[in-house]
Write a structure and sequence with these properties.
single chain; six-stranded mixed sheet; 40% helix; elongated; 1004 residues; eight-stranded mixed sheet
Length: 1004
């Protein structure tokens, strides 16, 4: 049974206000209460066992791509479209599932629901630790010539799901970084025999011994925990998909024990269990199975260490589903691409002391990024999470992309504008029910640090039930709604009967007005007759105690009556008689003198002594601890209500998830309509055709933006269209003879990098299912976007900036396919010009000579020599282009000599005009002219060493004068003065000779 705190109530005292009469048997007779007795009726039923709670199953191509199989213990858990967890999680070093023991007083509680909604996202520190835990295990083995193989498994406490990665061959540290970015783990487990490169990389991002700096805790486990056999045994112990009697038993000759045929409840032989397990989990992913064993071992160790046997809090580490996933079910985007394209760009608090380890406590907010344009438009927590998953996992399922585009088009209809405003308002009232249900299962009825009725689990569930039904009906009433996938999904998934039952049960049971007054959850009148009777008796306590004190005064001596103040009731202490105390002795003025009764002083406080006598004891036996009995009964009723609500847990969570998906699509539609974006044509071809494309971020920070076109085509199977049997008109509306490689040149500041990024961002947005900033776009499915744009330097990496660039290009070469889009911006600038130009030329030649497997490649460079010397020749698959400028060398100022048009045009650029850019940015004119003279000499293949040694006229004249002085000095004889010169004038003689040499006459 969940435990609830018993609030300390102010004791009742007699007052002039008369409340409901109180009934008692004995020496005092009280009239009956005038409150009618309600009819007692049962409203609760027995709970459904956990192994019969099934989630609503939804089926879509995206779900088949996202998770190859999903299984749960004793039941098969359905697959949802966005099953992979990506939300940020908070972490604390100590694990605790118990609520805080110290709660703020009732006076500090918020009295309205709006305040409760503001505090719902502020989770209790001790409760949020485990619920936000994500435990990940990573293992990477060197396979010799085949490269390294990567395996990974991670467990999400909030979802109670274990995710297994398909083993990835030829993997590197870059893929590990991508996994960390997607899962955002709070704890990372590696084997004690892990490779040095993997250990160093994970250690660079982990927390230190004080819990600072990193985003996760890194732990080394015994290598035995990562064995394939260990993982297999742990997965078999979960009994995945093995519920119910078996129609046949699997046995083989290698089995040690053959089960009895008549035992229908037997799980069968080990080999049979493995055969059944292989239908759900890919057992050929050996490293991932070993990682799953490490995660399950760690979970078991935590439950054993931190919780007692049968502790209900240990339920947080249950595993209800297992899902296989692959990095390549969606478009592959690594961390370099996300940073370079500004897809996501968190900004951290400038004060490092205000930064937490991760998640909601990290102090980070989304900066100027593509995701940041949409994130604030999502109204619900689950909607923000769904939106983030969309951006981290662009889909390559055309049906999913088209359904999202149709949903956005439907929401952008002018006739639906008013209805969507109301839907948006209703969505803001809905919170994430996954966390609410988890609190309900743990017996916690308050959310956040500040306790208020509007912030309670019951208020959130009631609002969710009301607004989810209202949203369902609002969507259903829209014209043409039955043709939109997300609307059909909302109508199908939201179980009207069960959700309405949840709202009705809470409304009929919980008295929210009385809960606000009492500062705790209160039960409505009419739910339980016994509880109502106790409440009536308790409410009539003041009148009853007034009559008790009158009767008691009549039984004591007359001189003592003035010392008898009143009779009072304390919860857990019972009825007490209050007597004034003697200031000199500190004892009561009367303690039962003259009576056969014994008055026992319980305590002294506030100038009064509190006594327990025979009459008080009789009243305790007659009525007991009324307040505690009321609290206990209300706890029983609330527990029964929680059990009944949890029977509908699957329906509640499914409705919450589908409303989050609706919210994420509404956020996409809102920005697309506001910025007038258009729907791209996404098909199976390998063509990229954009007309009037714009950069979604750059156009926000510039007064005017020049749109540009892009037309490219990667390698195809039949060089006409991607799929056999598809006509050219159906396959593509764009040009099929477009080049696969475009080399872009042009001056500095001309917009080359912006052009490269805008093309990649448009492709990225199209695979999310969003509209794109372009007049028209036709985009073939792209499996990967690989970039070499920004160099992410870090002192934690023992490599130079150029080594980082080389690693990015090498990763691109190893993982690119013919359906990939590759962006390379100024590769080779980190070394000398000859080596850089040679490496860039070789890289371009590698991609263009892949034939039918060549990817789409966009390159920006300032190495004009590779073009001038025909190291790279223009062909049908390779095109030169540049960003156009207007030159006016006769302009009076340097700033006016170059005018940037920011227009993409075919052909090569004659120069990068770096000296002109230097002059425009404040470099001295003399330096600019000197640099231009050197550039001209280099172009004419002159020797710069000779040119730098040539003297000017002034320098030559100064050199001639110095030479004449030196020759005149050497012609003179300074051995000794003539004999005619006196010894006293010898120094004067030397001086006159030197003056003669330096005189102008001697130099002529």
């Amino acid at each position: 049974m969940p435990t609830y705190p018993r609030d300390v109530q102010t004791p009742f005292e007699p007052s002039s206000r008369m409340s409901a009469p109180f009934r008692m048997t004995g020496g005092i007779t009280l009239p009956q209460s005038q409150t009618p007795r309600p009819r007692q009726r049962p409203i609760f039923s027995s709970p459904i066992p956990r192994n019969r709670q099934h989630l609503h199953q939804t089926s879509s191509p995206s779900s088949r791509l996202r998770a190859a199989s999903t299984i749960g213990p004793r039941s098969i858990t359905p697959i949802y479209e966005s099953s992979s967890p990506l939300a940020a999680r908070a972490h604390r070093s100590r694990l605790s599932l118990r609520p805080p023991s110290v709660r703020p007083p009732a006076a500090d509680q918020a009295s309205d629901g709006e305040q409760g909604e503001q505090d719902i996202d502020t989770l209790p520190e001790e409760s949020s630790d485990v619920m936000n835990e994500i435990i990940m295990a990573i293992d990477m083995r060197d396979r010799g010539p085949k490269g390294s193989t990567l395996g990974c498994a991670y467990y999400i406490v909030l979802e109670e799901a274990l995710y297994l990665l398909e083993d990835v061959a030829m993997a590197g540290v870059d893929l590990v970084e991508t996994l960390l970015l997607h899962a955002q783990p709070t704890t990372v487990l590696i084997s004690a025999r892990a490779s040095e490169s993997l250990s160093q990389f994970l250690a660079s991002g982990s927390q230190d011994v004080n819990g600072n700096r990193g985003a996760y805790i890194l732990r080394n486990l015994n290598s035995v925990d990562f064995r394939y056999e260990t993982g297999t045994n742990k997965l078999l112990e979960l009994c995945l998909g093995m519920d119910g009697p078996q129609s046949m038993l699997y046995t083989t000759v290698v089995d040690d024990v053959v089960p009895e045929i008549a035992d229908h409840h037997s799980r069968g032989s080990r080999q049979g269990q493995l055969m059944r397990l292989a239908t759900f989990v890919n057992l050929n992913s050996h490293l991932t199975i070993g990682c799953a064993g490490a995660v399950l071992t760690d979970i078991q160790r935590r439950r054993t260490t931190h919780y007692l046997p049968n502790d209900p809090d240990a339920l947080a580490f249950e595993i209800r589903s297992v899902q296989m996933f692959s990095l390549f079910n969606s478009m592959f985007v690594n961390a370099d691409t996300l940073v370079s394209l500004q897809i996501m760009q968190p900004e951290y608090h400038p004060n490092s002391l205000q930064r937490g380890p991760t998640g909601s406590t990290s102090g980070a907010k989304e900066g100027l990024s593509v995701y940041g344009l949409f994130s604030h438009l999502a109204a619900t927590p689950q909607g923000k999470l769904k939106l983030r998953r969309m951006f981290l996992q662009p889909s390559i399922d055309i049906q999913v992309i088209h359904e999202r585009q149709m949903s956005i088009s439907f929401f952008l209809r002018p006739s639906n504008a008013d209805a969507l405003c109301g839907i948006g308002r209703d969505l803001r009232k809905i919170k994430d029910m996954k966390y609410i249900v988890l609190l309900l299962r743990k017996g916690i009825d308050s959310i956040g640090r500040k306790i208020s009725v509007g912030n309670s689990v019951w208020a959130m569930l009631q609002k969710f039930a009301a607004y989810s039904i209202q949203l369902r009906e609002s969507l259903r009433s829209l014209p043409g709604a039955e043709m939109v996938g997300i609307v059909r999904k909302v109508i199908e998934v939201i179980d009207l009967f069960q959700i309405r039952q949840v709202g009705e049960l809470i409304t009929e049971t919980i008295d929210f007005e009385q809960s606000v007054e009492r500062g705790r959850t209160a039960i409505k009148q009419g739910v339980d007759a016994d509880l109502d009777e106790r409440k009536r008796n308790y409410d009539g306590m003041e009148h009853f105690l007034a009559r008790v004190i009158t009767t008691l005064r009549s039984t004591i001596p007359e001189w003592a009556r003035k010392y008898l103040q009143n009779c009072i009731f304390f919860p857990q202490l019972g009825f007490l008689t209050v007597v004034s105390i003697n200031p000199q002795t500190g004892k009561g003025n009367y303690d039962g003198e003259g009576l056969s009764d014994t008055w026992e002083c319980m305590f002294v406080a506030d100038g009064s002594a509190y006594y327990k006598n025979r009459q008080m004891k009789e009243m305790d036996e007659e009525f007991g601890d009324s307040y505690c009995m009321i609290i206990d009964r209300e706890i029983e009723i609330i527990h029964q209500l929680a059990v009944t609500i949890l029977e509908r847990e699957a329906a509640i969570i499914a409705a919450s998830e589908v409303l989050g998906e609706l919210d994420s699509l509404l956020a996409l539609a809102t920005l697309c309509g506001r910025n007038k974006w258009t729907a791209p044509i996404v098909n199976d071809t390998n063509i990229l055709h954009i007309v009037g494309g714009r950069h979604p971020l750059q156009e926000l920070v510039t007064p005017s933006f020049i749109p540009n076109d892009c037309s490219m085509a990667g390698g195809t199977k039949n060089n006409v269209h991607e799929q056999e049997g598809t006509s050219i008109s159906e396959a593509s509306d764009g040009p099929l003879d477009s080049p696969s490689t475009v080399i872009l040149t042009g001056p500095n500041h001309s917009g080359k990098s912006v052009y490269l990024k805008q093309v990649a961002i448009i492709v990225y947005l199209a695979h999310i299912g969003c509209f794109v900033p372009a007049e028209h776009a036709e985009i073939g499915l792209t499996d990967r976007i690989l970039t070499r744009i920004a160099t992410r330097e870090s002192v934690a990496r023992s490599e130079s900036a150029f080594a980082t660039d080389l690693r990015q290009v090498a990763f691109t070469m190893n993982f690119a396919t013919r359906k990939s889009l590759i962006i390379i911006d100024e590769f080779g600038k980190g070394t000398n010009s000859q080596d850089g130009a040679g490496l860039l030329t070789a890289a371009i030649d590698h991609f263009t000579n892949l034939g039918a497997d060549r990817p789409k490649l966009l390159v920006a460079t300032h190495f004009h020599e590779i073009l001038n010397d025909n190291f790279i020749a223009e062909s049908a698959n390779l095109q030169f282009a540049h960003m156009e400028i207007h030159m006016d060398l006769d302009a009076p100022t340097t700033q006016d000599q170059v005018t940037y048009l920011y227009q993409f045009v075919p052909g090569r650029s004659i120069s990068s005009f770096g000296t002109r850019c230097a002059g425009m940015n404040g470099v001295d004119q003399a330096i600019v002219e000197r640099a231009e003279s050197f550039i001209l000499q280099i172009e004419h293949h002159e020797d710069l060493e000779v040119a730098c040694s040539k003297l000017s006229e002034d320098e030559a004249q100064q050199l001639g004068t110095a030479e004449a002085i030196a020759r005149a000095f050497l012609e003179e004889d300074f051995s000794q003065p003539p004999k005619t010169v006196p010894a006293s004038e010898a120094n004067t003689w030397y001086r006159r000779k030197l003056e003669k040499i330096l005189s102008s006459d001697s130099l002529v």
